[in-house]
Amino acid sequence: MLSGAAATIFPAVNDIDLAAALADFAGRLLLDLRRSELLSGKALGEAGDQTANAFLVRAIRHQRPDDGLLSEESVDDRARLDKSRVWIVDPLDGTREYAEGREDWAVHVALAIDGVPVVGAVAEPARATLWRSDTVRLAALHGEPGVMVSRSRPPDVATRTCAQLALAMKPMGSAGAKTMALLRGDALGYIHAGGQYEWDSAAPVAIALAAGLNATRLDGQPLLYNQPDPYMPDLLISRPEWTERLRGALARCGGQAAES
């Protein structure tokens, strides 16, 4: 049924229009599921992961059958490693926040070409917001300067770095939601250490780069996608005028890039 729906809803479109339509529609499915109040807690989170993933995988397979695909909620098809074009998706980034009724969760859809995330869409359904790498604009910084960090496990190196630079730490759930907070001007950087996976950052990084933000490993090494092991140990996304200060403080606080 979903493959037929994909054919009806998504006629042949370019890559960014497809990514945006997929993220938006998956987000609507997730909102409908949560509003139904038929499930709650862990069961709701699991159902959300499965529902969004089933739709996205079938739609991408239908629309781009020759491309590779990497999704958090599917068994890794290593055939992707032989592909130049690979879709990298997180059907529900921030499952805990989704199940708790919060706003800071997202749907990520990215296309990496030769390891670089060049197309990205991030839907924030609870905020009725859809971000696209072809139209994104960076807002002016406002409010108290701060750095986005994980809500559940803020890294020690971020705590030390923020203390050294007298910056506030701003905890939030989804990696996509944290990155979009930078684009809104709510923070000047996002520091993550302790491990993520390619699907956590591919779409947010594609959008961040398109908006003129810097996105690298903690020590400035490039972020590479469609790797044999999709684990990504650390991440720094920052406004250009703050990048060197953040990297310098990270280095002084022991924030060298972790081993992959």
TrEMBL record:
Pfam families: Inositol_P. It comes from the Bacteria. It comes from Sphingomonas abietis. This is 3'(2'),5'-bisphosphate nucleotidase CysQ.
